[in-house]
Design goal:
signal; Jelly Rolls; about 20% helix; von Willebrand factor type A; alpha+beta; 12 helices; 30 strands; 9-stranded antiparallel beta sheet; vWFA_dom_sf; 7-stranded antiparallel beta sheet; Rossmann fold; VWF_A
């Protein structure tokens, strides 16, 4: 059933260029946005005039999409329309705009598309890359944020080669200036649009309306919290610096964004017994040294209640630290409970107060009251000045100079405020497992128990740190390939009963197709294993843990798998929003720098996979897959560091720190 498409013309792309002075980057993102608009308009025209979607016609699609997606009959083979995420359509309210958080990521452009189809809101992320001969943008993937599918993935599953091995690309000549704005472009925040990205402000253009500011859910002074106090819980007041300097960037991310993310995660995971409050300064008025506000007095709120208020704090003004500490006493309940204040600041007092003296008075105002301080992105002499606040407040000072150390510092400070006492040590505790084989890869020679199939010695080396470095190149190192290079196989019998294969490793994100397999191996077509692998999306990289079994012989191998996208809920809610992308990137950085532990576990007739890692700040992440039942178990322990089957040309690096076979004690 074909329905008419309601569209509205505009010229926001050109206005945006004027507003930013026609910078090269603005032109680039304007070109990308305009290309997506042209693509959707051409798709609409094809449906209305030829009853054919654009992705069914290779010649018509070629100027807009990479060669691998310009295939006759593609939409028919997919079985639905990926431009509208439907078979039939009644589309309205199309909005096309640059990804506000990351318009460019790893050289690709990120363009958002929102639309309504039969009244259902649909969200898409388009990824565009530069291609020859014109160095013009072309669409390399469409990712449905609503239904969580990827056009590139589906095309690959249909047997299409997306790596650009075909002939020269046909492009629209849009490399210099954006092609004309087709329709409904740019600003999803116009009244009634229900947009969800930051507004684009074009000075002097009355047609572009900036929405009213979001009202921060706070309390007027004197209001009482509705949830009361938990007499058994400790008290914590968080004071967040929202002075203008918090818009400064660390590692390419605004400090306020890092603070919002870290605090939102921490307050969402607090002990339910905790009484917590929130205060900010410098967030409402420029140049006003009285701009301090108690957003939530200390009380026992529902978990995550403060998160919207944290997310809505926007830096603007001065840094009245002393005034905030003086006012903090009013947010604290009058009780005999232990109380802590956590001050987060990226600068020194700018309003003439004495924050060290104010901290001393605050600490003396209650029983066991402490003032902890996190100093973010400061010079050495500035750290010393803020450390005085913690010392006078009987608290602890935590310096932080990047996002990871900031999250760790805040997590540690809140943990101290919660008062979690460490478990009492036991005398000579018995280990839970017995190690029956271990290789720590100290070198200089490989343990004789390992054989290496299709070895390329130039791609392996022992490092001075006591790890085995392994590089993966090209198409060969894929777990299902009989000729996979540098497959390590342990020539040693396995225990008869329950056991774990354990691998401590590091896996930096390089090609974004890294894949590591720890398996019980008979042959490429006969193995069961634990896999950790990366999947590139336009808005970020996803991390997967998969339990994989391949059986059935060379001619007709069959695959059974339990695959979990750890960035789709278990560890990160999703990498296509700012908070999820930042947390996902932090996890991947830790995976490459500090490493993780992969396990393949046998219990009776069941096999499952497990991944565990520790983030800075002692946050521990772990996940176990579902189990596969196997009546007959055979094979040798094996490790393969390689690529996924969709990998682009490139080189991936891995480090093995420890391999062990462990047997659980009864």
């Amino acid at each position: 059933m074909l329905r008419m498409l309601r569209i509205a013309s505009c010229s926001l792309s050109i206005l945006l260029l004027a507003a930013v002075g026609g910078s090269a980057q603005a032109q680039d993102i304007g070109s990308a946005v305009a290309l997506v608009e042209q693509f959707i308009a051409a798709h609409k025209t094809g449906l209305e005039t030829r009853q054919e979607g654009l992705l069914n016609n290779a010649k018509a699609a070629a100027p807009y999409v990479i060669d691998g997606l310009a295939v006759d009959g593609l939409q028919g083979r997919l079985g639905f329309d990926p431009v509208y995420n439907a078979q039939d359509y009644e589309v309205s309210n199309i909005r096309v705009f640059a990804d506000a958080e990351a318009p460019f990521l790893r050289g690709a452009a990120q363009v958002r598309v929102n639309l309504d189809n039969f009244g259902q809101h649909q969200k898409f992320l388009y990824t565009l890359v530069r291609v020859p001969p014109d160095n013009a943008w072309q669409i390399s993937d469409i990712h449905s944020l609503t239904s969580d599918w990827s056009l590139a993935d589906m095309a690959y599953d249909l047997g299409l080669d997306l790596r650009g091995a075909g002939g020269p690309e046909i492009t629209l000549r849009n490399g210099e200036m954006p092609i004309p704005c087709a329709f409904a472009c740019g600003n999803p925040n116009e009244p009634g649009n229900g947009g969800d990205s930051a507004p684009i402000v074009v000075p002097g253009k009355e047609s572009i309306v900036v929405p009213d500011p979001v009202v921060v859910p706070g309390m007027e002074e004197g209001d009482l919290p509705g949830d009361g106090l938990n007499p058994a819980g400790r008290n914590l007041l968080i004071i967040l610096d929202a002075s203008g300097s918090m818009w400064g960037q660390v590692d390419g991310v605004a400090k306020i964004a890092t603070a919002r993310q870290a605090l939102s995660g921490i307050v969402g995971d607090l002990n339910p017994a905790m009484n917590i409050g929130l205060m900010a300064y410098g967030h409402r008025r420029e140049g006003d040294c009285t701009d301090t506000e108690i957003l939530y007095p200390v009380a026992n709120y529902e978990t995550g209640r403060l998160v919207p208020a944290i997310q809505d704090i926007s830096p603007l003004g001065k840094t009245p630290i002393a005034g905030a500490l003086e006012k903090a006493a009013a947010a604290m309940p009058a009780s005999g409970q232990s109380s802590s204040v956590l001050l987060i600041s990226d600068g020194l007092e700018t309003c003439g107060g004495d924050p060290c003296a104010a901290a001393a008075r605050l600490a003396a105002s209650g029983i066991d009251t402490r003032v902890h301080v996190v100093g973010f992105d400061l010079k050495d002499e500035e750290h010393a000045a803020l450390q005085c606040i913690a010392e006078q407040g009987n608290g602890t000072y935590y310096p932080a100079n990047d996002a990871l150390s900031f999250a760790a510092a805040v997590n540690e400070a809140v943990g101290q405020a919660e008062g979690d006492a460490p478990a009492a040590p036991t005398e000579n505790p018995a280990p839970a497992t017995e190690t029956v084989f271990e290789d720590r890869f100290d070198g200089p020679e490989r343990d004789a128990a390992w054989r290496v199939d299709d070895a390329i010695d130039e791609l392996t080396a022992f490092t001075p740190e006591g790890t085995l470095f392994v590089a993966a190149l090209g198409k060969e190192p894929i777990f299902s390939n009989p000729k996979a290079t540098n497959r390590f196989v342990l020539d040693r019998p396995l225990p008869e009963g329950d056991f774990d294969l354990v691998l401590d490793f590091k896996m930096p994100e390089q090609t974004r197709h890294e894949r590591l397999m720890l398996s019980l191996f008979n042959a490429a077509e006969d193995q069961v294993g634990a896999q950790i692998w990366l999947e590139p999306l336009g808005c970020g990289t996803r991390l997967h843990l998969e339990l994989t079994r391949i059986s059935g012989g060379v001619d007709a191998p069959q695959k059974t798998a339990f695959d979990t996208n750890l960035f789709g809920g278990p560890w990160v809610d999703g990498v296509c929003e700012a908070e999820g992308r930042a947390r996902g990137d932090a996890i991947l950085e830790t995976l490459g720098r500090n490493g993780a532990q992969l396990r393949l576990k046998r219990r009776g007739r069941e096999i499952n996979a497990s991944l565990a890692m520790r983030l800075p700040g002692d946050e521990t992440l772990s996940f176990d897959t579902e189990a596969i039942t196997m009546l007959r178990l055979s094979g040798a322990a094996s490790i393969l560091a390689g690529h996924g089957h969709k990998a682009q040309p490139g080189e991936s690096h891995f480090e093995f720190d420890r391999f062990a076979i462990e047997v659980p004690r009864q």
